[in-house]
Amino acid sequence: MSAEQHDMGVSQVAAAIAEPARTKILCSLMDGHARTSTELAAVAEVSASTASAHLARLKELALVRLHVQGRHRYYSLADKRVAQALEALMVIGQNPAPRFQPRTPDRLQFARTCYDHMAGTLAVLLHDRMLEAGWLEETDEQAYRLSDSGSAMFQGLGIEVQDLSTLRRRFACPCLDWSMRRPHLGGSLGAALLQTALKRQWVTQDLDSRALALTALGRREMGVRFGVELPTETEGSRSQSAAARGALLNPNQ
């Protein structure tokens, strides 16, 4: 691809994402779920015909993928790279005031999906704990490798680390969290950790949003397995988010 073609491709994608209705459609698909055009029209607050036109454009630019099952047609993000690009744009789009005050709804800020891995305050706390414990080790390529103790920890969760390293995607990498502006764990290792958390019912996922809810079992496991201390639940996810966010934004308190 020539430089001119590359520039044209970037401008076309940027223009497609810049349209507010398309932005809403793409962001609603960041939870990894596929949705119908009717559902996406409601999300974007446009008519069904307008949503169809938007989806056709997004599909043309390989930002969404169409899935046909019998008479039903569903749309999802084309792949994880689209989610990563959206997450990065969300970071850039935040007001860069020195004293950052997130405006993300509390439940989404505390824990949510970032395509196929975990994001939010809980994910950032886990990421920081893994580095602190020496389970994750930084490399020169903006990526992580597992130490021997880290491999043993993930193997203890039933995660086949060797299998993950053979997949055609990054094994483990920092993914900048748009609400916390701190990294959480991405890559195939981050995806495997989320699936383990869901399977073991440490977290439950909303059907109609990206929000994840931490269960009582999950709260205990965060402390026992990872050494992550969370505030006592007094007002549900709101108190979890506020207290944990305070610990991150004011680490010396």
Explain how this protein is built:
This protein is α+β, with helices and mostly antiparallel strands and 253 residues long. It folds into two domains: 3-78, Arc Repressor Mutant, subunit A, CATH 1.10.10.10; 82-249, no CATH class. It has helices spanning 3-18, 20-28, 37-44, 48-60, 80-93, 106-110, 121-132, 148-156, 161-164, 187-199, 216-224, 237-249; strands at residues 64-69, 72-77, 112-114, 117-119, 136-138, 144-146, 173-176, 183-186, 203-205, 212-214. The strands form five sheets. The protein has a two-stranded antiparallel sheet with strand order 1-2. A two-stranded antiparallel sheet has the order 3-4. A hairpin with a 6-residue loop joins strand 7 and strand 8 (183-186). The longest helix has 16 residues, at 3-18. The chain starts with a helix and ends with a helix. The model is unreliable at 96-103 and 233-253 (pLDDT under 50).
> Helical element count?
12
Count of structural domains = 2
Q: Strand pairing plus helix content: what structural class?
A: alpha+beta
Q: What is Rg?
A: 19 Å
Shape: globular
Q: Give helix and strand order, one letter per element, not per position.
A: HHHHEEHHEEHEEHHEEHEEHH
- Work out the helicity level: 40-55%
Taking pLDDT < 50 over at least 5 consecutive residues as the criterion, the unreliable ranges are 96-103, 233-253
Q: CA-to-CA gap between the ends?
A: 52 Å
Strand content: 15-25%
- Give the averaged pLDDT, no decimals: 81
Number of strands: 10
Largest sheet: 2 strands, antiparallel
